[in-house]
Amino acid sequence: MPKNTFYRLDEARREEISNNAMHLFVDNLYEDITMKMVLDSLSMHPGTFYRYFEDKDDLYCLLVRNVTQKRAAYFNNSNEDSLYRFFLTGLFGNVNGTVTEPLNELEIKLTKTFLNIPENVLLKVYLNVLKGESFPLIKDILRRMRVDGYLRPDIDDDLISFMFESMQFNLVMFFREFDIKDSTLQHKLSKYFADFMSHGLLEDHKYSEMVSDIKKAREL
After folding, report:
1. How many angstroms from the chain centroid is the CA of residue 18?
2. Prediction pTM value
3. pLDDT value at residue 97
4. What separation in angstroms does the CA of 148 have from each of 15, 83, 142?
5. DSSP letter for each residue of 59-102
6. Are 168 and 40 in contact (CB under 8 A)?
7. In angstroms, what is the C-alpha Rg of the chain?
8. 177, HSE (Cβ side, Cα atoms, 13 Å)
Protein backbone atom coordinates (compact mmCIF):
# COMPACT_ATOMS: atom_id res chain seq x y z
CA MET A 1 0.00 0.00 0.00
CA PRO A 2 1.08 3.65 -0.42
CA LYS A 3 3.79 5.00 1.84
CA ASN A 4 3.05 7.49 4.60
CA THR A 5 4.41 10.27 2.41
CA PHE A 6 1.44 9.85 0.07
CA TYR A 7 -1.02 10.55 2.86
CA ARG A 8 0.83 13.72 3.75
CA LEU A 9 -0.30 15.19 0.44
CA ASP A 10 -3.33 17.44 0.57
CA GLU A 11 -6.66 15.77 -0.21
CA ALA A 12 -7.08 17.50 -3.58
CA ARG A 13 -3.74 16.16 -4.85
CA ARG A 14 -4.48 12.65 -3.58
CA GLU A 15 -7.82 12.70 -5.37
CA GLU A 16 -6.19 13.98 -8.55
CA ILE A 17 -3.65 11.15 -8.46
CA SER A 18 -6.34 8.53 -7.80
CA ASN A 19 -8.65 9.83 -10.52
CA ASN A 20 -5.89 9.98 -13.15
CA ALA A 21 -4.69 6.52 -12.17
CA MET A 22 -8.21 5.09 -12.46
CA HIS A 23 -8.53 6.39 -16.00
CA LEU A 24 -5.20 4.78 -16.84
CA PHE A 25 -6.14 1.34 -15.48
CA VAL A 26 -9.65 1.47 -16.95
CA ASP A 27 -8.51 2.50 -20.43
CA ASN A 28 -5.61 0.06 -20.77
CA LEU A 29 -4.84 -3.58 -20.13
CA TYR A 30 -2.84 -3.97 -16.93
CA GLU A 31 0.08 -5.69 -18.67
CA ASP A 32 0.29 -2.94 -21.28
CA ILE A 33 0.71 -0.15 -18.75
CA THR A 34 4.36 0.88 -18.54
CA MET A 35 5.95 2.99 -15.83
CA LYS A 36 6.33 5.77 -18.39
CA MET A 37 2.56 5.70 -18.90
CA VAL A 38 2.03 5.82 -15.14
CA LEU A 39 4.40 8.74 -14.68
CA ASP A 40 2.89 10.66 -17.61
CA SER A 41 -0.63 10.06 -16.33
CA LEU A 42 0.21 11.27 -12.83
CA SER A 43 2.54 14.07 -14.02
CA MET A 44 5.29 12.77 -11.77
CA HIS A 45 9.03 12.29 -11.90
CA PRO A 46 10.24 8.74 -11.07
CA GLY A 47 11.73 9.87 -7.76
CA THR A 48 8.43 11.41 -6.70
CA PHE A 49 6.44 8.31 -7.62
CA TYR A 50 8.67 5.98 -5.63
CA ARG A 51 8.46 8.35 -2.69
CA TYR A 52 4.73 7.54 -2.59
CA PHE A 53 4.44 4.01 -4.03
CA GLU A 54 6.46 0.82 -4.26
CA ASP A 55 5.40 0.05 -7.83
CA LYS A 56 2.45 -0.09 -10.24
CA ASP A 57 0.77 -2.83 -8.20
CA ASP A 58 0.92 -0.61 -5.14
CA LEU A 59 -0.87 2.17 -7.00
CA TYR A 60 -3.57 -0.21 -8.20
CA CYS A 61 -4.07 -1.53 -4.66
CA LEU A 62 -4.66 2.03 -3.47
CA LEU A 63 -7.48 2.46 -5.98
CA VAL A 64 -9.10 -0.82 -4.98
CA ARG A 65 -8.91 0.11 -1.31
CA ASN A 66 -10.52 3.47 -2.05
CA VAL A 67 -13.57 1.93 -3.73
CA THR A 68 -13.80 -0.83 -1.12
CA GLN A 69 -13.80 1.66 1.74
CA LYS A 70 -16.33 3.83 -0.06
CA ARG A 71 -18.72 0.89 -0.28
CA ALA A 72 -18.13 -0.07 3.35
CA ALA A 73 -18.73 3.50 4.52
CA TYR A 74 -22.04 3.59 2.64
CA PHE A 75 -23.35 0.58 4.51
CA ASN A 76 -21.80 1.52 7.84
CA ASN A 77 -23.61 4.87 7.66
CA SER A 78 -26.90 3.35 6.54
CA ASN A 79 -29.83 3.41 8.94
CA GLU A 80 -31.83 1.08 6.73
CA ASP A 81 -33.74 -1.28 9.04
CA SER A 82 -34.04 -3.93 6.35
CA LEU A 83 -30.33 -4.05 5.51
CA TYR A 84 -30.58 -7.85 5.52
CA ARG A 85 -32.33 -7.51 2.13
CA PHE A 86 -29.13 -6.12 0.64
CA PHE A 87 -27.33 -9.16 2.03
CA LEU A 88 -29.74 -11.52 0.30
CA THR A 89 -29.54 -9.72 -3.02
CA GLY A 90 -25.75 -9.71 -3.11
CA LEU A 91 -25.12 -6.40 -1.28
CA PHE A 92 -24.95 -4.16 -4.34
CA GLY A 93 -27.34 -3.31 -7.13
CA ASN A 94 -30.91 -2.03 -6.98
CA VAL A 95 -33.28 -3.09 -4.23
CA ASN A 96 -36.92 -1.96 -4.29
CA GLY A 97 -36.00 1.00 -6.45
CA THR A 98 -33.22 2.10 -4.09
CA VAL A 99 -29.76 2.39 -5.58
CA THR A 100 -27.39 0.52 -3.29
CA GLU A 101 -24.20 1.04 -5.31
CA PRO A 102 -22.40 4.14 -4.00
CA LEU A 103 -19.60 4.09 -6.59
CA ASN A 104 -19.50 6.42 -9.57
CA GLU A 105 -19.19 5.18 -13.15
CA LEU A 106 -15.40 5.33 -13.26
CA GLU A 107 -15.07 3.47 -9.96
CA ILE A 108 -17.43 0.75 -11.16
CA LYS A 109 -15.35 0.35 -14.32
CA LEU A 110 -12.25 -0.01 -12.16
CA THR A 111 -13.80 -2.92 -10.24
CA LYS A 112 -14.44 -4.66 -13.57
CA THR A 113 -10.71 -4.65 -14.32
CA PHE A 114 -10.40 -7.44 -11.71
CA LEU A 115 -11.27 -9.87 -14.47
CA ASN A 116 -8.25 -8.93 -16.55
CA ILE A 117 -5.40 -8.15 -14.18
CA PRO A 118 -2.65 -10.78 -13.82
CA GLU A 119 -3.46 -13.52 -11.34
CA ASN A 120 -0.54 -12.65 -9.06
CA VAL A 121 -1.80 -9.06 -8.86
CA LEU A 122 -5.34 -10.24 -8.14
CA LEU A 123 -4.07 -12.36 -5.27
CA LYS A 124 -2.05 -9.42 -3.98
CA VAL A 125 -5.16 -7.22 -4.06
CA TYR A 126 -7.15 -9.81 -2.14
CA LEU A 127 -4.51 -10.49 0.52
CA ASN A 128 -3.31 -6.90 0.98
CA VAL A 129 -6.52 -4.95 0.43
CA LEU A 130 -9.78 -6.86 0.36
CA LYS A 131 -9.14 -9.41 3.09
CA GLY A 132 -10.48 -7.99 6.33
CA GLU A 133 -12.19 -4.97 4.75
CA SER A 134 -15.73 -6.34 4.50
CA PHE A 135 -15.47 -8.81 7.40
CA PRO A 136 -16.76 -6.41 10.13
CA LEU A 137 -19.47 -5.11 7.78
CA ILE A 138 -20.83 -8.60 7.13
CA LYS A 139 -20.68 -9.44 10.83
CA ASP A 140 -22.78 -6.37 11.57
CA ILE A 141 -25.33 -7.38 8.94
CA LEU A 142 -25.52 -10.85 10.51
CA ARG A 143 -26.04 -9.24 13.91
CA ARG A 144 -28.92 -7.18 12.55
CA MET A 145 -30.42 -10.24 10.91
CA ARG A 146 -30.21 -12.12 14.23
CA VAL A 147 -31.86 -9.26 16.15
CA ASP A 148 -34.65 -9.15 13.54
CA GLY A 149 -35.22 -12.88 13.96
CA TYR A 150 -34.12 -13.89 10.48
CA LEU A 151 -30.89 -15.76 11.23
CA ARG A 152 -30.71 -19.44 12.11
CA PRO A 153 -29.52 -19.89 15.72
CA ASP A 154 -26.63 -22.25 14.84
CA ILE A 155 -24.78 -19.80 12.53
CA ASP A 156 -21.15 -19.02 13.33
CA ASP A 157 -20.73 -15.34 12.47
CA ASP A 158 -16.94 -15.47 11.98
CA LEU A 159 -17.13 -18.44 9.61
CA ILE A 160 -19.94 -16.98 7.50
CA SER A 161 -18.33 -13.53 7.37
CA PHE A 162 -15.06 -15.04 6.15
CA MET A 163 -16.90 -17.15 3.55
CA PHE A 164 -18.78 -14.16 2.17
CA GLU A 165 -15.67 -12.01 2.16
CA SER A 166 -13.67 -14.59 0.19
CA MET A 167 -16.67 -15.31 -2.06
CA GLN A 168 -16.03 -12.29 -4.28
CA PHE A 169 -12.43 -13.33 -4.89
CA ASN A 170 -13.51 -16.89 -5.70
CA LEU A 171 -16.23 -15.70 -8.07
CA VAL A 172 -13.69 -13.61 -9.98
CA MET A 173 -11.45 -16.67 -10.22
CA PHE A 174 -14.44 -18.69 -11.47
CA PHE A 175 -15.24 -16.10 -14.16
CA ARG A 176 -11.62 -16.09 -15.28
CA GLU A 177 -11.30 -19.87 -15.28
CA PHE A 178 -14.38 -20.33 -17.48
CA ASP A 179 -13.92 -17.13 -19.50
CA ILE A 180 -17.24 -15.63 -18.40
CA LYS A 181 -17.08 -12.01 -19.57
CA ASP A 182 -20.75 -11.13 -20.01
CA SER A 183 -21.64 -8.75 -17.17
CA THR A 184 -25.29 -9.87 -17.07
CA LEU A 185 -24.28 -13.50 -16.64
CA GLN A 186 -21.71 -12.53 -14.01
CA HIS A 187 -24.40 -10.71 -12.07
CA LYS A 188 -26.77 -13.69 -12.30
CA LEU A 189 -24.10 -16.09 -11.07
CA SER A 190 -23.10 -13.76 -8.23
CA LYS A 191 -26.71 -13.39 -7.17
CA TYR A 192 -27.30 -17.13 -7.43
CA PHE A 193 -24.40 -17.78 -5.09
CA ALA A 194 -25.54 -15.06 -2.67
CA ASP A 195 -29.06 -16.50 -2.69
CA PHE A 196 -27.69 -20.00 -2.15
CA MET A 197 -25.58 -18.88 0.80
CA SER A 198 -28.34 -16.75 2.28
CA HIS A 199 -30.86 -19.57 2.14
CA GLY A 200 -28.58 -21.55 4.42
CA LEU A 201 -28.40 -18.67 6.90
CA LEU A 202 -32.08 -17.94 7.33
CA GLU A 203 -34.91 -19.65 9.09
CA ASP A 204 -36.91 -21.39 6.33
CA HIS A 205 -40.13 -19.49 6.94
CA LYS A 206 -38.27 -16.18 7.04
CA TYR A 207 -36.46 -16.99 3.78
CA SER A 208 -39.76 -17.75 2.03
CA GLU A 209 -41.28 -14.57 3.41
CA MET A 210 -38.34 -12.44 2.28
CA VAL A 211 -38.18 -13.91 -1.23
CA SER A 212 -41.94 -13.39 -1.61
CA ASP A 213 -41.63 -9.72 -0.54
CA ILE A 214 -38.77 -9.11 -2.99
CA LYS A 215 -40.69 -10.73 -5.88
CA LYS A 216 -43.73 -8.56 -5.15
CA ALA A 217 -41.58 -5.42 -5.04
CA ARG A 218 -40.05 -6.24 -8.43
CA GLU A 219 -43.49 -6.68 -9.97
CA LEU A 220 -44.54 -3.15 -9.00
Report:
1. 17
2. 0.76
3. 40
4. 39, 10, 10
5. HHHHHHHHHHHHHHHHHHT---TTTHHHHHTTSSSEETTEE---
6. no
7. 19
8. 6
